Amino acid sequence: MNTGEVVRSFKDHTRAVEDIVFSDDGLHLFSASSDTTIKKWDLGTGNLVATLQGHLTSVYVLALSDGCLWSASADKTAQRWDLETNLPEDKTKLEHPDFVRSLAVFPNGGYVVTGGRDENVRIWDVASGECLKTLSGHFAEVSDIKIRGATIWTASLDGTIRTWPITEKDLKPNPDARTAITAAEAAPAEATKRRGNKKAVKMTEEEERELAELMGSDDDDM
Predict the structure, then answer these.
(1) DSSP 12
(2) Backbone phi and psi for residue 198, each to the nearest 5 degrees, phi listed first
(3) Which of 66, 104, 108 is nearest to 121 (CA)?
(4) Given a cut of 50, is residue 121 above it in pLDDT?
(5) Angle made by CA atoms 31, 191, 102, in degrees to the nearest 5
(6) What is the DSSP string of 89-148?
(7) C-beta neighbour count of 51 within 10 angstroms
(8) Of 90, 98, 92, 127, which is closest to residue 115 (Cα–Cα)?
(9) What is the pLDDT of residue 172?
(10) What is the Cα–Cα distance from 112 to 61, expressed in whole angstroms?
(11) How far apart are CA 87 and CA 192, in angstroms?
(12) pTM greater than the 0.90 cutoff
């Protein structure tokens, strides 16, 4: 560190690296790339151990929980990977109506939370692969998700951070959640239209107040 020189470079991706995570045992590094692949590296040697292939386009985010690797992609899916075979598990391929940009796993590994370009946050049951609940409130892409205790924290390109307290009821099967996804799939252009035309975005009174406060803050900074 005293010289400022690069100690080691991990090179094999052919396009941008979007995210990295360390394995639970600290022996490996996983990297996600817009070249559609996930790569597993040996931290001790810097050598490439394996290339995980299964997504159709850019892989945006990775998450490791209890030895299980999850990924989210622009191919509209989130997937769990079998690290013994380095293949995606078919039963845990979670399909979305638009790009999946963020992902977090509950500490017990039983539930996954995803956020996407369609502005929604979804809670999934890992065992069944079913969407248990769709959380709506953001009015732009959901860019990051964190879980703290029984609360989901989400960040969005709409300039807000939102919190969603989760109860036991939210983690029970809900047919309406699947219906919400189906409806979004039937009209995928609607979210794109809202993003491309700010005048078409319909905000609640609360969102309008938040936006006004943000704009006011910007004016003060100037």
Answers:
(1) -
(2) -60, -30
(3) 104
(4) yes
(5) 20
(6) EEEEEEE-SS-EEEEEE-TTSSEEEEEETTS-EEEEETTTTEEEEEE---SS-EEEEEEE
(7) 13
(8) 98
(9) 79
(10) 13
(11) 32
(12) no
